[in-house]
Amino acid sequence: MNTEETILALNKHFPALEAVSNRPLRVFTAFAEPKAFEETLRYANLTLGYHKGKHIIGTDEGENIGLSYIISNDEDVLLVLRERVPKSAPHVHSMGELYPSLMLHEREMVDLFGVQVSGLPEGPRYPLPDCWPDGEYPMRKEWNPAYFNKQTVTYEPPKQEDAK
Amino acid sequence: MSDYREKNKVVVQIGPQHPSLKEPGSFKITLDGEKVERAVIEIGYNHRGIEKACESRNYIQALYIIERVCGICSHAHTSCFCQAFEEIAGLEVPRRAHYIRGIVGELERLHSHLLWLGVASHEIGFDTLFMYTWRDRELVLDLLARIGGNRVNYGVNTYGGVRRDLEPELMQDILTVCDLLEEKLKYYADLALTETTLIARLRGIGTLLPEDVRKYSAVGPVARAAGIMDDVRITEPYGVFREIAVNGITDDHCDVYGRTLVRVKEMLEAIRLIRIMVKEIPDGPISVRPPRKLPVGESLSRVEAPRGEDIHYIRSNGGESPDRVRVRAPSEANWHGMSHMLEGFQLADVPIIIAAIDPCYSCTDRAIHLIGDGINQLTDWAQIRALSIEQYKARGIDPGSIKIREF
Amino acid sequence: MGLFDKAIAWGEKNSPWIIHFNAGACNGCDIEVVDALTPQYDLERLGILQQGSPKHADVLVCTGAVTLQTRDRLKQIYDQMSTPKFVIAVGTCACTGGIFDSCYCVTGGIDTVVPVDAYIPGCAVRPEAIIDAVGKLLATFDQKEAKGK
Description:
heterotrimer, A: alpha/beta, Beta Polymerase, domain 2, four-stranded mixed beta sheet, two-stranded parallel sheet, 8 strands, elongated, C: alpha/beta, 5 helices, globular
């Protein structure tokens, strides 16, 4: 299935995704809620033949956290399907049964963005070190490396009163 | 008896400091005798926080950091990053720059594969080949130093093209080195195909069948050794490869031997490509002026690094710094199948199986397990003897009656 | 200096054995360190042999900016080496943290964890610079011997 066919199929079944392509072998879609995203991912894998899991890119979308899954097929089209969850309740399901190679990257989302991924098997954390404090998610935009004390391994943001 | 075997499985911790692994990575191998039953891999020692650092720097500063994601494939990373930038900015890179990027890229592939061949031979105890290949590699490094100014991290790429041009004498020297290297590479190819001890050591280990390559999304020589034509220069030609066709190399062995053959043949192919590029390089400018700020947009760019498909993502919000930078190095993709590749093979084969995916931990972590709490315990002679008597008693032998002479 | 100490000093000066550890580097300096041991530069003619275990080594050759994860491991490796021991920081990142100094997972250069005897700057460091540093370090053994330590 090539780029154009993929866009046609996606826009027919999931018009809310607004699948577009700005160049050959790339298809970008809009952010979706977890349930709709999982449905689309399953469709892309089982029906459209996108069985290769390439990568997951986590992004900070202000109030939300975005997870962009990059998957590919035998014709090497890169399809980007995205889900968005609120920072206050970032719960997603692991898509490891469809894409075992993406589980390492789901662990990255847990460590770097604080996303809670249910269904991941037991395993070591990745990529942050063992001594990393809980609750600190460095890839969130509000986290400033300048306030991170590497000797005591604690995050020390300035207090609000000092700013006055 | 089987219960005894269950309880007495040895867990060997390999790494993070280990004589044969040049980079820190931790492997907890559960052994059944000499056979690897289970392997738990912990990487992340090289995680430096590069992507966050790029967000607080402008694009030019970010390029320097991206170059140092990995010292072995630095040109591949900067080519990919520049490509992503140029796509968002809508820049048309001059043809001469594409050719220069291509020449340096293929020279990098040569040096990286020679490095790999040397390290792999060292892992199997074939130190002579290690010394030969690294001696030959110096020819390539000298060329790269003349082109870019440095043996490692050559800094040839910039947004909109390349920073340095190739003079005619340098191009002539590139061809001379190609001739010298080709002779030596043919010798290595012959060695790989006919040397029985080498073949015996590498055949049939670290097997990853085509269906597993697909399941674990392996890329580069690991995928090509399983017969799958996974080469970005062919599937999505970029830069100079839109004009020059690459002969993709695949092999059907699916094991470490297959990966060796693929890499050796790729080196010969790289020489062929360099010769064509030097002969057909067009005249013209070597770069166009890039903007300081990128328009709003995002792009995913891919190149074929020596280890496989390298993907970079840039998202711009219109400012001088990137909003989000993401690097998916090829080694990251090849790690997923590592546990599968180790299981069922001998402990002595573990270093070469790990080396066969040509892992680059710095590419993977950019951005490992102290067993226990680091308890230090000094066990004296009497305690060791008591422990061993206990273990023998569990097997039904009582050595306690044997008198040991005090030394 | 007793006879035993003199023998150790003589062995160290004429054949220092090294152990190489990557504390979070990009690999550039590591391949140059290995390069220094291969035929073109051949440190082995100065009596330098690379060892696998810290217990067999006199000199710790360390590359890379120290990451939070490797910090404790580096200390452990240093502690396992028997005295007298020396540390060489290879590369700009090992000297000061280099380009990665402000990154959240990097604590800085090697000297934030262990005492360093020789700093070799460069990105990546050239094998000639490594040879120069080794020569200078060996010369300091001479001075120590002269002072009777």
